[in-house]
Specification:
By secondary structure, this protein is of the alpha/beta class. Helices cover 32% and strands 16% of the residues. It has 2 domains: 10-65; 82-161, Arc Repressor Mutant, subunit A (Orthogonal Bundle), CATH 1.10.10.10. The strands form 2 sheets. The chain has a 4-stranded mixed beta sheet. Strands 5-6 form a two-stranded parallel sheet.
């Protein structure tokens, strides 16, 4: 799946053991997008110069992919609706190595019947891994969806449980 962006974002390429990820920062240097290797759109402009903020994110991704728990970098939540922001902030409460259901998230945000809306908000999460939508499963235990693809979701869940 490729991602097209409405606004003109400058992306930085971060090489990891799992491929090149692409990040963009807002005007304050906060992370506002993270694209997986399979999500790069040909129209995205890539900057070769890494800023200090990007270098910190690079180190954090390296730690994460080596199986370590990582701290949340400075992120910009403003790319979503108020409901989406509530969902994304609730995802941060799911501990590393654990999972919750879409239904659990819906209850936490005060909308217990909004399970599908929670799924949609997870799918629009602009900063997967750091806002851990991969930790959300169906009530039946099924994987549900994941914008970068289910193989990535399986990989991230296995990485965190080891």
């Amino acid at each position: 799946m490729t991602v097209s962006l409405k606004k003109e974002n400058k992306f930085y390429s971060i090489d990891t053991a799992k491929g090149s990820f692409f990040v963009s920062l807002d005007e304050k240097g906060k992370l506002d997008r993270l694209l997986f290797p399979n999500q790069k759109d040909k129209s995205i402009s890539i900057s070769k110069t890494l800023t200090l903020s990007v270098k910190k994110i690079e180190k954090t991704l390296d730690r994460y992919f080596s199986g370590k728990t990582v701290a949340l970098p400075d992120v910009n939540f403003s790319n979503g609706t108020l409901f989406q922001q509530k969902v994304w902030k609730t995802l941060l409460k799911i501990p590393h190595g654990q999972t919750r259901s879409y239904s659990w998230i819906a209850k936490q945000v005060g909308s217990p019947k909004a399970v599908r809306a929670v799924g949609t908000a997870c799918g629009k999460n602009p900063i997967p891994i750091f806002i851990p939508c991969h930790r959300v499963l169906q009530s039946s235990g099924g994987l549900g969806g994941f914008a970068p693809g289910l193989p990535w979701k399986k990989y991230l869940l296995n990485l965190e449980q080891n």
